[in-house]
Design goal:
heterotrimer; A mainly alpha (about 375); B alpha+beta (about 270); C mainly alpha (about 160); A: about 375 residues; mainly alpha; Formate dehydrogenase/DMSO reductase fold; globular; C: about 160 residues; two-stranded antiparallel ribbon; 8 helices; about 5% strand; elongated
Chain lengths: ~375, ~270, ~160
């Protein structure tokens, strides 16, 4: 099936070349970081994880959200999603690949990465995260690829593929739960030490991932002869609506707990994010932007007519992605580290090379996504013709 | 202290004379003797090392001396930039050492009193729990140790430590010998040619001077502090009921940082 | 053959690429360096293990040392008498290999000597001519051990 990725229109190739250029720039910056060390990033002794780990966290959510099309199809026999399960699985493949790359570029000693396998440490959540992410990647590669090639040949897929698909459903929940445990089990980091961290992660994943999928479906319809389907997009819109409502609800629960209990250590991180602490409030405009987009998305998602209209739904999806990305990709990690254990504020902002490496990893993900979707869409077109 | 201090210092001195301070071989003793004599030293057979800092006997000048001794002993560079700072032992004022303890009416004198901080060598260390390679681990004597040969630089331990005790090598520490403005800050780096430096990309912190304990010497900061002010810092084995630290903890009111987190810090302050 | 010309050109480019290291280094055969001993090392007559043994296994020994010092706080080393006396004793090398591979990494101490396990303070105390004793051979073999990223090299008189 790979050969279908080698035939494309000019727009396809220009997009791929653009991504390759971004990947090249990212690689160049990474080599600079490899030689100089992580000092070229904005991270410090106090904010010791930054943009990379935040992107990783966000993308674990996108990866896990593939389950939102797989689950209704396999468990509830919702036939309509049969058309697009492979899109969900291929999005998961691209997202998990980005996750692994983000962990890799964040390591101080990347050449020693195999130590994680040579000295397995079951008490470390990072060890389990490595296992669940890699297995999830493999599950999606096997299931997505085999279902698609069976579709191409016009035969039903094998039984074992269905078994793997069933396994991948709880597995998707596990990857984001384990990723939440990376944060939620750390003593002395009040912002992260919350029992609903995993639930928050899952809810934000299940709105941002399907929102991205809706946008991709709309693009696919425009650039190819394959139509993911009106009903499919409408159902996904419903999923995004529920998940975003739950996501915002969970966030408000956190705010209630912190501000009604009035425990300073719990309030201070929210204060830092939304108004600034010790004169440092660079994140405040971002967090209020996220709030604005969250509200806008809720309005558009809750009102039935705007949710069902694909144009306003697209606006709602963009808003969801912006809001959740700011929340997880900026607020979560930076807000958790600031103020530090001494209640001092150390400013963090990603540096240019750090941003370029990040864009390089995103470009790699979108490269994989584009190629895989090109294959999927070509097969769908072929079958339809 | 179990062993009388003078007696102890004598043994410790003898141990360093032995030449395990690093020079080639010892042929005088019969097989097994050296190991046996090493284990008999009061600092090589502990089960739960702990430190008590007597804040009545400490002042800023003395703390600076301790910090300097520690950082010289372990080749800790001054990178001239708080963002990249590496520190094993440092000063922090009361307000920030014990956040949550202070109140608005506290006098400036107390508020700005500096405390001498380092790794707490917790009995229940979260850093060791989260390390994906066991590069940071707890020794049998309770010391939370770093294996620089194994660390992959994921910095999970830094997120897990509630005391900000860990530093990361954001760049190559050796660059202080190459970059002009850093050269001035670090004359004679590496200051201790018998101890290694670190490479970029690994986490480091106080080790309670394991390399000195092995020779029967007290940690560098304790040695320096007590030279100036007898009893300013007390180091000993909590598992030994006769030890001086146990006596002090029994008779004096001491505080620890964030005990409510259950990590059981082994660094105590007399205030 | 379809695209025959392209295939042949491709093969030639590929072959040239694979052979490039040989072509690049042709005619520049370097003589294998012999590690040079300092006066102190000569006087000591023997190392922690026999010369043959050290030549073949010093990296495994150092790996074992660093593991035991850092992780087990076992800082003293007793060489085995057998290893000290042996020349090229394949059996001992096999034993050692076994000890490494089965993870026990233990070596029976029989000698009456004790050494501090330290690259910086024991090995380099005798072999203070690192550039001659270590580097020449490492360079010749094309390896670049990262020991010296952290462990301080002795100051050598030029």
């Amino acid at each position: 099936m790979l050969e279908t990725a080698l035939k494309g229109k000019q727009g396809y190739w220009s997009w791929l070349i653009f991504l390759l250029v971004m990947m090249g720039i990212g690689l160049g910056c990474y080599l600079y970081q490899f030689n100089e060390g992580l000092r070229i990033t904005g991270m410090s002794r106090d904010v010791s994880w930054g943009f990379y780990i935040a992107q990783f966290t966000y993308l674990v959510g996108v990866a896990a959200s593939g389950v939102m099309v797989v689950l209704p199809y396999y468990l509830h026999d919702y036939k309509a999603f049969g058309r697009i399960t492979v899109l969900g699985e291929f999005m998961a493949i691209a997202a998990v690949t980005m996750c692994i790359l983000f962990i890799f570029v964040d390591l101080g000693n990347p050449v020693r990465i195999m130590n994680v396998i040579m000295f397995p440490s079951p008490t470390s959540i990072l060890f389990w995260d490595m296992i669940v992410l890699n297995v999830y990647l493999l599950l999606n590669v096997f299931v997505g690829w085999n279902v698609l090639s069976a579709e191409r040949k016009g035969i039903p897929y094998q039984k074992w593929v269905k078994v793997l698909a069933y396994i991948s459903i709880p597995w998707a929940f596990s990857i984001h739960t384990v990723t939440a445990f990376l944060y939620a089990g750390l003593p002395g980091r009040h912002f992260w030490m919350t029992a609903i961290m995993a639930a928050r992660f899952l809810s934000s994943a299940f709105c941002s991932g399907p929102a991205l999928l809706i946008l991709i479906c709309l693009i696919v319809r425009r650039v190819s002869k394959f139509d993911p389907g009106k009903e499919q997009i409408r159902t996904l819109g419903g999923i995004v609506a529920y998940a975003m409502i739950i996501n915002v609800f969970f966030y408000l629960l956190e705010i209630f707990t912190a501000f009604y209990s009035q425990i300073p250590g719990h309030m201070v991180h929210f204060e830092f994010l939304f108004v600034g602490v010790d004169g440092y409030g660079k994140l405040a405009p971002w967090m209020w932007t996220a709030t604005g987009f969250a509200v806008l998305s809720l309005i558009l998602l809750i009102i039935p007519s705007t949710r069902r209209n694909e144009e306003t739904l697209a606006v709602a999806c963009v808003s969801v992605i912006v809001a959740t990305w700011i929340d997880k990709g900026l607020g979560l990690v930076i807000g958790g580290f600031t103020p530090n254990p001494f209640e001092r504020v150390t400013p963090y902002w990603p540096t240019t090379p750090e941003i370029l490496i990040t864009l390089g990893v995103w470009a790699t993900g979108f490269f994989i996504l584009t190629v895989l979707y090109k294959i999927a869409v070509s097969v769908k077109e072929e079958v339809a013709a | 202290m179990g062993v009388n201090r003078r007696e102890f210092l004598k043994i410790a001195g003898a141990a360093s004379l032995f030449g395990l301070g690093g020079k080639t071989a010892i042929e005088i003793l019969a097989p097994g003797k050296v190991e046996a004599s090493m284990e008999a030293l009061p600092l090589t057979g502990g089960e739960r090392w702990a430190m008590v800092v007597d804040m009545h006997k400490m002042d800023d000048a003395l703390m600076d001396k301790c910090i300097e001794a520690c950082h010289r002993e372990h080749n800790v560079p001054d990178l001239g930039n708080p963002k990249e700072e590496v520190k094993w032992l440092w000063k922090e004022d009361y307000h920030h050492s014990f956040p949550g303890q202070h109140h608005q009416y506290i006098g400036d004198h107390f508020k700005h009193t500096n405390f001498l901080l380092m790794c707490n060598h917790c009995t229940n260390p979260p850093c060791c729990r989260v390390c994906p390679t066991q590069a940071t681990f707890q020794r049998k004597d309770g010391i939370v140790m770093m294996d620089m040969h194994r660390c992959i630089g994921c910095r999970f331990c830094m997120a897990a430590c509630p005391f900000g005790a860990r530093s990361f090598n954001w760049g190559d520490p050796y660059r202080v010998t190459r970059v002009e403005e850093l050269k001035k800050l670090n004359p004679g780096f590496p200051t201790n040619r018998e101890y290694p430096t670190r490479s970029k990309g690994v986490v480091e912190k106080c080790t309670f001077c394991t390399e000195r304990l092995a020779k029967g010497l007290l940690p560098a900061c304790v040695e320096v502090a007590n030279k100036v002010e007898e009893g300013a810092m007390i180091f000993g084995d909590l598992a030994d009921p006769e030890s001086e630290v146990r006596q002090v903890l029994k008779e004096t009111y001491t505080i620890r940082r964030k005990p409510e987190l259950g990590t059981e810090p082994n660094l105590f302050f007399i205030v | 053959m379809y695209d025959g010309g392209k295939i042949i050109v491709g093969l030639i480019v590929c072959l040239a690429f694979l052979l490039s290291p040989f072509i690049y280094n042709a005619g520049t055969t370097a003589k294998a360096p012999v590690p040079e001993l300092t006066e102190k090392a000569k006087e000591a007559k023997e190392c922690v293990e026999s010369t043959t043994y050290m030549r073949a296994w010093h990296m495994q020994l150092l790996d074992q040392w660093r593991h035991e010092v850092v992780r087990d706080a076992k800082r003293t080393y007793r060489p085995s008498r057998k290893a000290r006396d042996m020349r090229l004793d394949q059996q001992v090398i096999d034993q050692w290999r076994h000890a490494v591979s089965d993870g026990t990494r233990r070596y029976m101490p029989k000698s009456d000597k004790v050494f501090e396990k330290s690259l910086q303070n024991t090995c380099l105390d005798c072999h203070s001519n690192k550039s001659k004793f270590c580097d020449e051979c490492h360079d010749y073999m094309g390896i670049d051990p990262y020991c010296w990223d952290c462990h301080i090299e002795p100051e050598e008189k030029k």
